[in-house]
Amino acid sequence: MQTRLKALCASLAALPLLASAALPAYSPVTDARLTKPEAANWLMYRGNYEGWGYSPLKQINSQNVGKLVPAWSYATGMTEGHQAPPMVNNGYMYVTTPNNQVIALEASTGKELWRYKKTIPDELMQLHPTNRGVALYGDKLYLATTDAFLVALDAATGKELWKVAVADWKKGYYMTLAPLAARGKIMVGSSGGELGIRGFVAAFDAQTGKEAWRTYTIAGPGEAGAETWPGETYKTGGGSVWITGTYDSETSLAFWGVGNAGPWMPDTRPGDNLYANSTIALDVDTGKIKGHHQYHWNDAWDWDEVSAPLLIDVEHKGKKVKSLVHAGRNGYLWLLERTRDKVNYVDAWPYVTQNVFTSLDPKTGRPTYDPKRVPGTGKTTNFCPSLWGGKDWPPEAYNPGTGLLYIPANNNLCSELTGEPVKYNAGNLFIGVSLDNILTNVRMTEKSRKHIGEVQAWDLKTGKKVWTHTYPEMNWGPLMTTAGNLVFGGGTNDRMFRALDAKSGKVLWETPTPSGVTGVPSSFEVNGEQYVAVQSGWGVDAQRMQGAFDAVLEHKTVVPQGGTIHVFKLQK
Amino acid sequence: MNKTPHHPDHSHPVESPSSPERRDALRASSALLLCAGLGIGKAALAEGPSNSRPKAGDQLVRSDSEGNPVPLRSTEILPDTKPLPAFPLEPASGEVRSGSRLNKVILIRVAPGDLTEETRPYAAGGVLAYSAVCTHQGCEVSEWVAKDKTLMCYCHFSKFSPGRAGEVVAGPAPRTLPLLPLREENGVLVVAGPFTSNPGVAKST
């Protein structure tokens, strides 16, 4: 008896301490599961490797979405930008918050299982206090932090297993993205494009945290593209990577978006500045760059192209294309082709007001610029779209059912920048435009006084816009679409979270949340019931744009801060 | 733009990793890092005059000064303009306390009529010294907003009133900006005591 009791105790002790009785044992996340994720789960940043932001669930649909009610909510206790999707693996939910925290919850009830808080250095400057989620892999989860650490936690208990320094936060490197997990590696990139970093994507062994490879996004001596950076400018050339890459499991290529070249004024670094403002295809095993496409050369507008392209098989002019689709911050919607060893230009067209590009090379897609619209040191330049672009980081979504691509856009908005000389000092801002100018950069037009924010739906087959839903002011809302013919998103300064009809764009349901919604929505199923989840928590760039609007508009808008996790389900 | 003088790299605290260029060295010591814990790093940070907090008797020098730093005089701080970023200087050793950005202050001239009773004792020759580090998320309070006479942090728009002891008047900052008391010696600004509260971000729990 006693021996059996001991054995029982031992087996109980081995169980995750806080797992509730209702929860099954944690199910490890494999490459196979990530390649073909179950409809019931949301295992990564965008739900699948292709970056679709799509849930195949349809219990909640355009017929009944009006009956969506709160299932539970949870106050994070944090302020600032809550952007991470609630990720779900068989009943376990993981949410990250600003200040590098991870909250594990029971997905159907909201009961807290554990909470992890990374200690932050006292001296750390958090330009973007936010986090966009974890990577789930094996029985671990991975967090990239604003002090540039990669942390591995036990997914069941929240116990810290290891942490590695990815870069030096004192030199302006910081991380806010959800890592990408594939083939035994955990991949991350670094923010700091305004602090004179040299961007990179780095991969770490999922088990040990040992660095496997590091590929700079800014070509240095001896690397292809080095000739596009004069002198030592590559050392501080920016090219930040702060949004999770997409991944093609057939070719083992990960596609990453690369931020703007730095500092902002293009005359400080004459040349194309590879691979800033590009997408790069990296071999996940070696980190080798297998292909790239630079959306625009010698950036002058702070148009980070950090959003990773979506992997979509489309029919273009009668030909099947394994494509990469990217709604650029530069205001053009890009259609590229991905092969095993190349990225080819296919087509592109403006999706918001754009007055900088005068033409695109029909073969390469390389734009020609209107010189009047290119900022420079010592001159003042007005250009559209604004420095936040036609679309900033909030991700597009693709629905294979409707065949439509959904874009959270900001249209009709322009910027005015005056370039000034700037000197590099490690850890300090390295921009070349005065802060005063940046804070008041927005220029309103007749049109933007009518509306700015949009949700656009594009038919990639025809290259035609099918519908547009407009908002009076900005849209900073990441989108999710579902097989229930729905598109979910927030992003407006009226604190609303909405469901739109995926075919028509009609608003079918909306609810005000405690703060503004800039979180990535997700959907999951537990015990046969579908849920929709999102974080409310206005902050960082959305608030910065609000500040710029407040500076130029007659009225001021207050969006209260404070994070909450919201989970909705159908009323019974 | 603020230019910090050369940082003497005395210590490698646990949470202060090497740069990517030095990652090999880091890899070699990563096991040690994992075991070391946070305590050692904090202790290391506190060593040496360049890292330790300002003390009474310190002078102040421009944060962008190069070569031989010259102590600032109150008359150099002009009214109604961007605050001047500065670091304390230990006169005995000649060391600038620029090892920690939490030592950085901003100097601002406030008209006598705009000073509250509470604030006046901290001023010298009409000049006040505030911590340059926003109490919200640690960004730099670098901007002067003339129309409401406030100091502003560009990161998240927190505004502080220099005449009202660094009171938060707008934005997400949770507490006042710490003051560094000043006095004057023959026109030279001298630190009169420690910060009124800890500079930097109040840790959320």
TrEMBL record, chain A:
<feature type="binding site">
    <location>
        <position position="260"/>
    </location>
    <ligand>
        <name>Ca(2+)</name>
    </ligand>
</feature>
<dbReference type="InterPro" id="IPR017512">
    <property type="entry name" value="PQQ_MeOH/EtOH_DH"/>
</dbReference>
<feature type="binding site">
    <location>
        <position position="132"/>
    </location>
    <ligand>
        <name>pyrroloquinoline quinone</name>
    </ligand>
</feature>
<feature type="domain" description="Pyrrolo-quinoline quinone repeat">
    <location>
        <begin position="475"/>
        <end position="532"/>
    </location>
</feature>
<keyword id="KW-0479">Metal-binding</keyword>
<protein>
    <submittedName>
        <fullName>PQQ-dependent dehydrogenase, methanol/ethanol family</fullName>
        <ecNumber>1.1.2.-</ecNumber>
    </submittedName>
</protein>
<dbReference type="Pfam" id="PF01011">
    <property type="entry name" value="PQQ"/>
</dbReference>
<keyword id="KW-0634">PQQ</keyword>
<feature type="binding site">
    <location>
        <position position="176"/>
    </location>
    <ligand>
        <name>pyrroloquinoline quinone</name>
    </ligand>
</feature>
<dbReference type="GO" id="GO:0005509">
    <property type="term" value="F:calcium ion binding"/>
</dbReference>
<keyword id="KW-0732">Signal</keyword>
<keyword id="KW-0560">Oxidoreductase</keyword>
<dbReference type="InterPro" id="IPR018391">
    <property type="entry name" value="PQQ_b-propeller_rpt"/>
</dbReference>
<dbReference type="InterPro" id="IPR034119">
    <property type="entry name" value="ADHI"/>
</dbReference>
<feature type="domain" description="Pyrrolo-quinoline quinone repeat">
    <location>
        <begin position="42"/>
        <end position="339"/>
    </location>
</feature>
<dbReference type="InterPro" id="IPR011047">
    <property type="entry name" value="Quinoprotein_ADH-like_sf"/>
</dbReference>
<dbReference type="GO" id="GO:0016614">
    <property type="term" value="F:oxidoreductase activity, acting on CH-OH group of donors"/>
</dbReference>
<keyword id="KW-0106">Calcium</keyword>
<dbReference type="GO" id="GO:0016020">
    <property type="term" value="C:membrane"/>
</dbReference>
<feature type="signal peptide">
    <location>
        <begin position="1"/>
        <end position="21"/>
    </location>
</feature>
<comment type="similarity">
    <text>Belongs to the bacterial PQQ dehydrogenase family.</text>
</comment>
<feature type="binding site">
    <location>
        <position position="194"/>
    </location>
    <ligand>
        <name>Ca(2+)</name>
    </ligand>
</feature>
Automatic annotation (TrEMBL), chain B:
<keyword id="KW-1015">Disulfide bond</keyword>
<protein>
    <submittedName>
        <fullName>Rieske (2Fe-2S) protein</fullName>
    </submittedName>
</protein>
<dbReference type="InterPro" id="IPR036922">
    <property type="entry name" value="Rieske_2Fe-2S_sf"/>
</dbReference>
<dbReference type="GO" id="GO:0046872">
    <property type="term" value="F:metal ion binding"/>
</dbReference>
<dbReference type="GO" id="GO:0051537">
    <property type="term" value="F:2 iron, 2 sulfur cluster binding"/>
</dbReference>
<dbReference type="InterPro" id="IPR017941">
    <property type="entry name" value="Rieske_2Fe-2S"/>
</dbReference>
<dbReference type="GO" id="GO:0016020">
    <property type="term" value="C:membrane"/>
</dbReference>
<dbReference type="InterPro" id="IPR005805">
    <property type="entry name" value="Rieske_Fe-S_prot_C"/>
</dbReference>
<keyword id="KW-0001">2Fe-2S</keyword>
<feature type="domain" description="Rieske">
    <location>
        <begin position="125"/>
        <end position="191"/>
    </location>
</feature>
<dbReference type="InterPro" id="IPR014349">
    <property type="entry name" value="Rieske_Fe-S_prot"/>
</dbReference>
<dbReference type="Pfam" id="PF00355">
    <property type="entry name" value="Rieske"/>
</dbReference>
<keyword id="KW-0411">Iron-sulfur</keyword>
<feature type="region of interest" description="Disordered">
    <location>
        <begin position="1"/>
        <end position="26"/>
    </location>
</feature>
<dbReference type="InterPro" id="IPR006311">
    <property type="entry name" value="TAT_signal"/>
</dbReference>
<keyword id="KW-0408">Iron</keyword>
<feature type="region of interest" description="Disordered">
    <location>
        <begin position="44"/>
        <end position="95"/>
    </location>
</feature>
<feature type="compositionally biased region" description="Basic and acidic residues">
    <location>
        <begin position="1"/>
        <end position="13"/>
    </location>
</feature>
<keyword id="KW-0479">Metal-binding</keyword>
